[in-house]
Amino acid sequence: MNIARCKGARDMFPQDMRGFRKVEAAFRSSCYLWGYEEIRTPTLEYLHLFTSAGTLSPEMLSRVYSFLDWDGWSGERVVLRPDGTIPSARLYVESLSDMPVARLCYVENVFSFEGTGQESREQWQCGAELIGGSDPGGDAELIMLALEILQNMGIKSIDVKISHVGLFKTLLQELGLDEEEQSKRLKEILTGDVNLLGKIKGESQEVKRFLKLLLEVQGKSLGYLENLKSVLPQGLSKIRSSIDDMAQIAHLLDGIGQEYRVDFASGEGFEYYTGMVFQFYYSGQLMGKGGRYDELIPLVGGGNIPASGFALLMDNVQSVIDTDEPYDPETILLTCKTGKIEELKGSFAVASMLREKGHIVTLDCGCSSEVGGRWMVTLEEVRKEIIVSLRDNRNGKEESGLSPSKLLQEIEDSK
Amino acid sequence: MTLKLALPKGWLQSNTAAFLEKAGFGYADYHEKSRSYRPKSDRFKDLFTKVFHEKDLAIQVAIGNYDLAICGFDWIQELLVKYHGDAIVRVRDLGYGRRNLYVGTSRFSDLRSVEDVKSHTGTIRIVSEYPNLAEAFALKLRLRRFKVLPVWGATDAYPPEHADLAVVSASSPDDLIEKNLIPIAKLLAGNAWLIANRASLEQKDLSSMLELFYKTDPGRGSEAELSISEIEPEEEFESSVFEDGVVTLALADGHQQSHTSKFMKTAGLRIKGYRQPPPTRRPRLLFDGAQVKVIRPQDMPLQVANGNFDLAITGRDWLSDQMYQFPSSPVEELIDLGFGRVRIVAVVHNDLPVENTNDLRHLLISGQIPVLRIATEYTNIADKYARDNHLSPYKVIPSWGATEAFLPEDADVLIENTETGATLAKNKLKIIETIMESTGCLIGNSNSLADPDKKERIDTLVGTFKKGLTSD
Q1: Which of A144, A331, B88, B280 is deepest in the core (most CB within 10 A)?
Q2: Which ipTM score applies to this complex?
Q3: How many A×B Cβ pairs under 8 Å?
Q4: Helix (H) or strand (E) holding A178
Q5: What single string gives the DSSP state of each residue in A193-237?
Q6: What are the beta bridge partners of residue A280?
Q7: CB proximity A117 to B under 8 Å
């Protein structure tokens, strides 16, 4: 009987895991150096953590894995974590809220149903959250950190897109739309359908011209943002501060020679974003995204604490970094000639000595087909003495009667 | 090629029969009072037809057991709102069997409108036979904290003490008012529909049947999406609500009612208005400090566990089903009342060459059955039976009734209750294992039993029930 894996589930093979660990290591080492401390939240959370307005959108909620727990007779549902940021906010509010600024990072999986079963329903992400960091300095730190991590992995030509959810929220208010209309339009914008904003009726020519400039032009410099400010219609003055936030980030990116695009149509994301949002692309593929979520901490029961964060999408990152480099570590296979217990004892001792020096040693567990890696070490008991011999598979050279220290020296000399 | 059509049992049955008659399907044994599970069409000799409980129809089409089905709009949406797959295609609104889905609240509730519900800060408890639609409603309103209480029926009995809102089906808001609920919103409205399995529609020639369906007038259309239209409350009601600190007892409706009623009489407990069908969900128990509601026995263990009721009279079968799912439930059996004795059995079709569970396992090991399909109303008992007996691989197909119709085409085994085995034998089914025996029992909430305010009254009530046993 063939027992297949679950539909929509994925196995990760040794080669995948090497890529995974590479991304994880680059992420962790940068995060530590920037003062971010690692956390891990549970895979199971209560559903209600994600149901409030301003957390997950109804569309995302309709795809969460939710069920009744073993003690679910009370009707309380639990979910497989559908998002990394909201549980981090919960953790902060529950246990770390006495920290004025919390820099947290995590490598976690998130689950979301995908209908065809062709895509994995489990995604891994590397997330960093800066809770307590104010606007726009916090956003700048996160963008720079994400860029450093990607660059450390060899991903050099990164395309940064910045947008501002807060700008749209203010804009919709300023246009005098009623609450329902505002939320409908914002949803369209957040799912990338910004053009609809241009069709809002009853606005003056001045406002229309401004919207056209905002939505149809992708700025590539600080100048674009300055242009926007200079043509800002009188009635929309409140969005000036959002543009100023973006200008500071643009200034910073200019300073390090990082190219970027101010693309207001790239606002797609989660419902909890309130301000600046950013995305990192490489060759047209999304590597990661993040943004400011100042209302989330209060929403999960904490104080009025601003926060922002980003997540790198591990699958996408892994797919572009070089993991195809040949993996051929120089391993040592240890075998016992006759299989006597004294040989076995000796083989564990020799293996342990070699491993202490950083060598990869495998023991022949009776698998006669195992041919070994670079070296083959054979132990044989002859008249109550263990004779050690070494064969270098690369050149066929063999030596016998080696002491442990001589064995080590031979191996290290031939490397 | 045999085509397969699934038809509803229950309230849609007579209208569906009339429709099929008019359309010319020629079913002699599918009508208002027919009990056949496999009616035959005179017109389509190759058509295999089966009759299911209305809640089971959409699932049967979605999993591809049936090409076509006639199904109430509410149950189609209940499935689709949670499982968005595209396996079901809504083919034709049949213009009859209109039903609406309302959200109702109690007159004693502070929640008098959708706006009140949205701005409520505590947990909103929503009781419904439609748990998926109830959840979709809560998510659509972005309720911060809510709990959905899925029930088998008697939804109107729960508010206000045991639920804040009820999502119920009715033909008009007046039906809710009759049941002491204030309708605050309408979620869905729809007729019976012809639905098709997508793959069947893409690959099989169903045209001769579809033509007959298309000859009829479609009637009023259905509202395809869940949309919340608010209803202004206006009616006032007469009803009573449980007093604070009262000991709450749940009694069953349905066929267990007569057993329970008789037992209570023997025990000397007088109760007014407890009959079948129930004239009220709140009969009056002549016992100081205790009040009664009438709900479905299937729902009682959960409702006692969650503290909605202190005591209930249900069957051990339903208590076991609950305990297998939620082993830490604070609910316990207090007295075996001895009535309504049934066996919970594993059943197969006579043609299946097995005499016991061991034989069944061998069929699986040898690959003669690739995946064991177990149809049942007792999903957790079935799950445990399959696990304990290593019947791997298996799937449990939840059913809402008429389960014996599933064999042999749509399931391999049933986990079913039986009194004498006669109905099973009539359907050419045989028992391969008795899993448990079940009788009516008094169950109680463990926390209530330890509650000093209630303990004395509960002990007295339990003592009175015990008298019923000795004088029997």
Answers
A1: B88
A2: 0.72
A3: 55
A4: none
A5: -GGGGGG-TT--HHHHHHHHHHHH--B-SHHHHHHHHHT--GGGG
A6: A160, A288
A7: no
- In sequence order, what are the residues at sequence separation of 6 or more whose Cβ sits closer than 8 angstroms to the Cβ of residue A308? A129, A130, A133, A135, A138, A139, A142, A275, A276, A290, A291, A292, A293
- Which CATH number is A343's domain given? 3.40.50.800
Answer whether B122 touches A (CB < 8 Å): no
Minimal Cα distance from B302: which residue of A? A73
**For chain A, what is the radius of gyration of the CA atoms?**
29
Structure tokens at A123: 């995604």
Range of the domain at A45: 14-320
> Do B144 and A48 make contact, defined as CB atoms within 8 angstroms?
yes
Query: In a mutagenesis test of the B interface, which of A73, A112, A179 is the best target, namely the one with the most B β-carbons within 10 Å?
Result: A73
Confidence (pTM): 0.81
What pLDDT, in 10s, does the model give residues B347-376? 999 999 999 999 999 999 999 999 999 999
CA dist A131 and A103 (Å) reads 6
Residue B58 C-alpha, separation from nearest chain A C-alpha, in angstroms: 18
| Alpha-carbon span A339 to B116, nearest angstrom | 79
Which residues of chain A are within 8 Å of residue B143 when distances are taken between CB atoms?
51
Closest residue of chain B to A71, computed from CA coordinates: B326
Taking only the tens place, the pLDDT of each residue in A176-231 is 777 767 777 777 776 666 566 556 665 667 777 777 777 777 788 888 888 888 88
> Are A267 and A291 in contact, with CB atoms under 8 Å apart?
no
Please tell me whether residues A276 and A399 are part of one structural domain: no
| Chain A residue closest in CA terms to B331 | A73
Round to whole Å and give the CA distance between B428 and A30.
70
Other beta carbons within 10 Å of A370: 14
Q: What is the domain count for chain B?
A: 4
* Chain A CB within 8 Å of residue B362 CB: no
Cis amide prior to B160 (ω within 30 degrees): yes
Whole-number Å distance between alpha carbons of B77 and B423: 33
Question: pLDDT above 70 covers what percent of chain B?
Answer: 95
Residues B367, B336, single domain; the answer is no
CB contact under 8 A, B328 and A1: no
DSSP 8-class letter at B99:
E
Q: In what order do the strands lie in the sheet with B181-190?
A: B146-150, B124-128, B165-170, B99-106, B181-190, B229-230
State whether A158 and A259 are in the same domain.
yes
Q: Which of A1, A58, A74 sits opposite B306 (nearest CB)?
A: A74
Task: Name the 3-class secondary structure at A380.
Answer: strand
Asked if B143's CB is within 8 angstroms of A73's CB, the reply is no
Structural domain of B50: 3-96+190-214
Q: Is residue A291 part of a domain?
A: yes
